[in-house]
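#struct-pred

JT: dropping the chains for the assembly here, can someone run the whole complex?
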Amino acid sequence: MNRNSLLTTTLGAVLCVASLNTVAKDLLTQIKERKEIVIATEAAYKPYEYIENGKIVGYDKDLLDFVMEGLPGVKVTQVDVPWASVLPGLAVKKFDFVVTVVGITRERYDNFALTYPIGDGTVALLKRASDDKLSTPEDISGRIVGAQVGSSQLRALQKYNTKLISDGKPGVEEIKEYAAFDEAYADLAAGRTAAVAQSISSLAGVVKERPDIFAIMTPTIGPKAYFSWVGRKDADSKPLVDFFNERIALANSSGKMKALQMKWFGFEMPVPTSVPEPLEID
Amino acid sequence: MFSRLDGYIGPMLAGASVTLVICIGAILLGFIAGIALYSLRNTGARGAVALADVYLGFFRGTPLLVQLLMLFYIPIALGVEINPYVAAVIALGLNSGAYQSEILRAGFQSLPKGQVEAADSVGIPRGKTLWHIQIPQVLRLTVPQLVSEAADIIKASAIVSVVTVTDLLRVGRQIVASNYRPLEVFITVAVVYLILISIVQLFGRYLEARWRTKS
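RK: done, full complex below.
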């Protein structure tokens, strides 16, 4: 009995010290020690991130390489994760950081640490190049429009639709929500929807690849919006998030970001070096 | 289309091999789980039978996708890191174990009872009787059903990408996400699945034929 309780106390003390030890070391220090960082990416947003020859490439990958130059010797393990598992996986610490285009919504703003913006997330509508009935975004009244479930682009679309209705237009017939944007594009090409709401910077890549099928409607439908990367919003992760922000700000001020934007998009996207307030939907 | 097909083959072979390795692991794990479940029930002890029933009820009564997500997210909540590929094999394998145990049970039941009694009477331990006398016969009897179960696992494995495993279907989606040509890519993915399953079926027929002539 006595031995047992002694054992329990010792074990308890050891566990306590062990847990104190891990609490004392923040995520950035842990990453430096284990010499590895695990990054989640949904490689389905050409030219931001996509797979080429089995590797994740794109604007975000190049920018990540620049960020990681600030942590020499740390190996980057970047995994391709379906969107539905990206933020949940980050929350349960499956990954250290999310490097994929994430639009700034209220829920994400409140629950995660978003970095300084890395791209322009202002939303525009994509249509079939052959669809003559659509010339300006207002023409989507009475048509079906798609977007990715839970995306900031979906929010912008809903908000735009509310505005259409308050302007006396009938509004869209239906907003279809897709698990991934590639499904939304496929349904648009197949004629099941009339348009897809997506950031204009991503759409530029779509139209470049399939100019025979798709076309962008101008002007954009939402207010100016941005894309960020994401970390956890706890004290443990704060030094890592700060590190990413410092490096992103450096990429921005040094012209590195602009050079990468010219390389991957062919145009420049000025972004602020602060985290903007999320897009509100009323 | 055929010139682009060239570009698909490399990544799709990589994806297909991931699918194949995971499925082979799952089939083997499922076989062992199936035997264990059968043995549990066969003991006749109330607790053991109840345990097997709960297992069967759970794995046949909930969606595989839910089982996979549980296996991925629950260990991490308890502070246990589980490799996604291992999680996929375990989820598919434990799930298949429930079905394989039913297939194997039918096989065991068709063996004459006297065999075990005879083995007992000459002093062969029960474990040896199981692995060296009963299981080889059960395998022969149930090859067609086990092959069909293996084909089911391959098809069911198409969901494993939710736990970050880059399997054949995920590779297809990656390609679609960069070339926006879903029709031809998914047709190619379907053809590769068909080839994988055909290989398994041909192997099953070969085993059947071989064992038939031997017996």
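JT: nice. The two ends of chain A are 64 Å apart (CA to CA). The domain at 123-217 of chain A is CATH 3.40.190.10 (D-Maltodextrin-Binding Protein; domain 2).
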